[in-house]
Structures are given as C-alpha cells and as structure tokens.
Design a protein that fits this description.
11 helices; 3 domains; Rossmann fold; 34% helix; alpha/beta; 4-stranded parallel sheet; 294 residues
Length: 294
C-alpha cells in the first residue's frame, strides 16, 4: 500500500497517529512522501523526517501511489478536492485522515461506501451530519431540515411524492438562531427547513439534491424514546432501516444509544452522526444494515 500524505495543517502528532493507524491496518504500508498546498512545509517535513521527502504539488500526477491522505482539521474538503482534481488526482484516491480515525476503517470499505452512493432518508439532520463526517456527497434532499415522526412515517409509506412540488405553508421562528424559517409541504407531509432563511433557497436546494437520489440504496433513519414509534418504524418495508433508541430492544432496526446526562436524546444521535463518539460500526451500519456494537 503506497501512501502520499498531503499536508494542509501541519501537526506532527496528528501525522504520526495517522501513520501508526495505517501501519497497523496494512503491514506493507509504504510511505512515498509528503506534499502540500503550502510550499514552506517542505523544509519542515524534511527536518522532522531527516530526509527530503517533499513532493511538489505539480509532480503528484507523475507519482505512483495508491492513496493521498489529507492531514489537517480546518479546511474546506470540496475546495481541496477541486484543487487536486485539477492535478488529475481522482477522488477515489483521496482520503481525509479523520476518516482513518473511524473505527474499523479500511480504504476498501471507504471506497465501497463512496461508490454505493447511499441515499439517507432521515427524520432530522442526521443524514447531513454523517455525510459530512464521511466526506460523501449529499444523495438526499433531506439536508438541514426535519419532519415530525408522524409525517416522516407518512412519507416513508409513499416516498414517490418526493418528486412532487414543494409548497410553502408558513414561517416559524427558531428561538435558537432567532430567525424565521420556512415550513413547506409535499402532498400532506410537512417539512421544516429550520436551517434555511427563506423558501426560495430551501426549494432550490431540495430540488437540486433530489436529482441525486439513489433508489437502489435507500436507508431510512429515525430516532425515538417510544416503543410504539419503534414498532411502527420497524414495520415499514425498507431493506435498510435504522432507529436510534434511548432504550434497549431486540427489534431489528433498533440501535440503542446510552444516555448519560440530561441532554435531549436527539443531541446524542447528532453527536454520533458527527463522529464525536462511536457506539456502532459505521461501515457495517451504512453498507450492510448490520448492527455491530463497538
């Protein structure tokens, strides 16, 4: 396995941790060198690693490697991706180091997940959160919005309405952001676009993203404190379905997340989606609808 590290924010400890993780996964790991969008890092890397292993960006397309691993925390992934694409480096070869930190990571699993183009139908922001955590495109229009549980179930029973017109209903006030946001309808299902300033932007993004829906890989995801809601969700005819619960259950779609303080259960669900903690194997969950506790 031949690796080039692309340094965006230089943190020696972060770099060493990534190398160590990959070395445990791949016994034949071969470090080809380092590159960066910041030229001054060449001398820094050469000094720390006692040899001149810096590869200028313009030479990357001429180097034989399997993966380009991004090292950094504060950067725009899409911007870096576009920059590297100009250098003829394909996305399937680019992996951020934060992905490598996810338990049970392998490059093979990650590429399989990316190529599977999962369409997540969530009842809240979870789909957007986990997509950002995994650096994958939004293959769903359910981004930065939520539905109440009753309407979510109605939608899942007739998902074909997703291509119908989105109709403005009213505005509601968000006491956290102190802004109004649009509430819309498709058929008799209400969508709360709580992260959008107006109907026009919400509609534009919704229509744009619904074109990417992958009907061959739909995952329905919700959360609940109620056994009755869980039973109703589990009865739906979806091959892949996940319902995060605050209580333990043997029901197939139930994914129990322990609550350790007085925060709302939704906070725990969103934290899991952001990769702030891991109680289940992401790869098994998204790829195979398999519940593998960690």
């Amino acid at each position: 396995m031949k690796i080039v590290f692309y340094i965006i924010d230089y943190d020696y400890q972060d770099l060493i941790l990534t190398i160590n993780i990959l070395s445990r996964i791949y016994k034949t790991l071969e470090l080809i060198g380092f590159s960066s969008n910041k030229k001054h890092l060449g001398n820094v890397l050469a000094k720390n690693f006692n040899k001149n292993v810096f590869i200028p960006e313009y030479r990357l397309s001429k180097i034989n490697f399997d993966y380009l691993v991004l090292i950094g925390t504060d950067y725009d992934y899409v911007q870096i991706l576009n920059r590297l694409n100009i250098l003829n480096i394909k996305e399937e070869k680019i992996v951020a180091n934060k992905i490598i930190y996810i338990p049970n990571f392998t490059f093979e699993k990650y590429n399989l997940l990316r190529s599977s183009k999962p369409t997540i139908f969530p009842s809240n922001c979870f789909g957007g959160l986990i997509s950002k955590t995994l650096n994958i495109q939004f293959y769903t229009p359910f981004i930065n919005l939520f539905l109440n549980f009753k309407d979510f179930i109605k939608f899942l029973k007739k998902p074909y309405i997703i291509n119908d017109d989105l109709v403005f209903v009213k505005e509601e006030y968000n006491s956290i952001t102190k802004k109004y946001y649009p509430v819309c309808k498709i058929d008799d299902v209400e969508f709360y676009f709580n992260h959008y300033e107006n109907f026009e932007i919400a509609k534009e993004k919704f229509y744009e993203r619904r074109k990417r829906i992958n009907k061959n890989n739909i995952i329905a995801i919700s959360y609940t404190d109620s056994l009755d809601d869980l039973l109703l969700f589990d009865s739906l005819n979806y091959e892949k379905k996940i319902c995060f619960t605050s209580f333990q259950s043997d029901i197939p779609s139930a994914y129990y997340i322990p609550v350790k303080d007085k925060r709302p259960f939704l906070n725990y669900v969103n934290d899991f989606g952001q990769g702030l903690f891991f109680c289940y194997d992401y790869w098994d969950m998204i790829l195979y609808n398999k519940k593998t506790a960690l």
